[in-house]
Amino acid sequence: MSAATPAIDIARLRKVYGRTLAVDDLSLRVREGEIFGILGPNGAGKTTTVECTEGLRRPDGGSIRVFGIDPYADRRRARALVGAQLQESQLQDKLTVAEALRLYASFYPRPADTEALLSRLGLTGPRNTRYKKLSGGQKQRLSIALALVGRPRLVIFDELTTGLDPAARRESWQLVRDLRDDGVTVLLVTHYADEAERLCDRVAVIAAGRLAACGRPAALIAAAAAISGEGQAARSTLDDAIVALTTGRLTDPTAGDALSAALCTGEL
Amino acid sequence: MTTALTEPARPRRARQRSAFATLVATEATLNVREIVPLLWGTGFPVALLAVMGVFSSGPDKSLGGYSLVASYEPVLIAFSVATFALQGVPVVLAGYRERGILRRLNATPVGAGRLLAAQLTVALTLTLVSVAGIIIVGRLAFGLPLPGQPAGFCLAVALTAAAMLGLGLLVAAVARTGRVAGAVSTMLFLPLMFFAGLWTPQATMPAALRRAGDDTPLGAAVAALQHSLSGQWPSAASLAVLAGYAAVLGLLAWRLFRWE
Q1: Looking at the domain assignment, is residue A90 inside a domain?
Q2: How many domains does the structure of chain A reveal?
Q3: Is residue A2 pLDDT above 70, yes or no?
Q4: CA within 20 to 30 Å of A78's CA: A184, A197, B54, B210, which one?
Q5: pTM for the whole thing?
């Protein structure tokens, strides 16, 4: 695991849908082995950024490398290294849990042990249950299992815990930490700041298609509190920082840019 | 440390199937679980052939010299081909796209194209099984002759399947949901089967209607199948009509199809 090749290297990414600029001049680097969060309001361009990283969309400008591989041009090679849990993707109603996992295992050269994966995700009981009959939480755990069955070096979770109850959220967090302990890089898209604050080594805040800030959660909180002049860093949360960074409630309008530049290039 | 999350599978057993074989097996299993469309495509034409056979009473001048059951055999073959290609495939594919299944496949090294190929493999296999079923039941139960021009018959079936799949994929390309695809394909299926002669055999249609029907895919299909069943080579005109539909519809579907 050389520090030289980042897990994800996004440089000046631009993506346009018709007349809408979804992502504009966005650059960030995710190091191998870290849990990296992408935060921001709805429609900020989080999912577009992630879909470009997964090779599902072709960037209109800039470049993306995943472990040094172009995920769109060289998608076969890149996708063998990346496990994805997509937003709003379902399975066939009449496919059972075990069948789905076996099917996805066949897509990868060195798949995980499907039995171990089923039991780790608490899916041994409903293993012969059809997708349609699964509860929301079981469906979510199955989509996590499918993201992991190829033994990826990078896992991308798009709204991992949306719709889960508090206990299930905590279980998902532990799973993400276990993945990191196994050396897997995790990219976590979320709009829960508390989740990112507890879990992520670093976060990027995206607003209106641009990078608003990037760095360790604690550093973002401190910097945002300092800049907005509230001086209550001790009691501020990442939530406060994000609101400050994405709604322009900063005393100095150029401070946001200065902050993001400092945090993204520096070794915070 | 390696937890259950990243534990590798034990070394692959020799019997481990390839991704494509697993996709085909999965799609086949899912098709069998959707029992109603399966019966509609295979059981229904065979049952209808049996009913025709019971009421059939020798060659009939008004049916162009064929018995009732013989005149319906090519119609039911066309019915079976159209059921899988036009009613089955588009509903499944548009549904898969609607539910993000194609998009999810595109995030794996295998890609959704392979799922499309697996789905077509299963549909064509089911088509061949039910065409064979119609021929065998016709032969064993009602003494209908086997295709007199086997090469021409195979070509006619292949072109019919290609034209219907072209139309089916076009429906899958333009329909936003599985439900819409089902409605559109049924709206197409009924008039196409009319010109195939499902309700009024082609021989009894007024001349103008019959001529119009010759230019429809299933009208041409039944003419080509009828000829090859009775030992003649299908007419160039009907083969050209089928090939033309297959090419134009297939190209349109190719251009318009979206994975998401």
Answers
A1: no
A2: 1
A3: no
A4: A197
A5: 0.88
ipTM of this predicted structure: 0.88
How many domains, in total, are found in chain B? Answer: 1
Q: Is residue A88 part of a domain?
A: no
Is the minimum CB–CB distance between A89 and chain B shorter than 8 Å?
Answer: yes
Residues A14-46: tens digit of each pLDDT: 999 988 889 999 999 999 999 999 998 888 899
Question: Any chain A CB within 8 A of the CB of B18?
Answer: yes
- Does some domain include residue B108? yes
Of the candidates B99, B101, B103, which has its C-beta nearest A56's C-beta? B103
What's the domain range around B96?
Answer: 19-256
Using the Cβ of A15 and the Cβ atoms of chain B, whether some distance falls under 8 Å is answered with: no
> Residue A161 sits in which domain range?
8-81+152-265
Interface test with B, best of A88, A106, A133 (most B CBs within 10 A): A106
Q: What does the alpha-carbon distance between residue B20 and residue B2 come to, in Å, rounded to a whole number?
A: 30
Grouping H, G, I as helix, E, B as strand and the rest as coil, residue A89 is coil
B108 in contact with A, Cβ within 8 Å: yes
| Segment A123-134 mean pLDDT | 96
Residue B4 lies in a domain: no
- Is A158 part of a structural domain of the chain? yes
CA-nearest residue to A116 within chain B is B4
Q: Lowest-pLDDT range, A29-33, A43-47, A79-83, B92-96? A: A43-47
Asked if the C-beta of B33 comes within 8 angstroms of chain A's C-beta atoms, the answer is yes
- Residue pairs between chains A and B whose CB atoms are closer than 8 Å: 108
Residue A193 lies in a domain: yes
- If phi > 0 it is left, if psi is from -120 to 50 it is alpha, else beta; for residue B200 that is beta
Arithmetic mean of pLDDT, B21-34: 94
Predicted confidence (pLDDT) per residue in B180-220, tens digit: 999 999 999 999 999 999 888 888 889 899 889 999 999 99
Residue A158: phi and psi, rounded to 5, are -100, 105
Does residue B13 belong to any structural domain of this protein?
no
E-state strands within chain A: 8-17, 20-30, 35-39, 61-66, 82-85, 154-158, 185-189, 202-207, 210-215
Residue B99 distance to chain A (closest CA, Å) = 5
Within a domain: B105: yes
Three-state DSSP class for A211? strand
Contacts of B48 (CB under 8 A, 6+ apart): B72, B76, B79
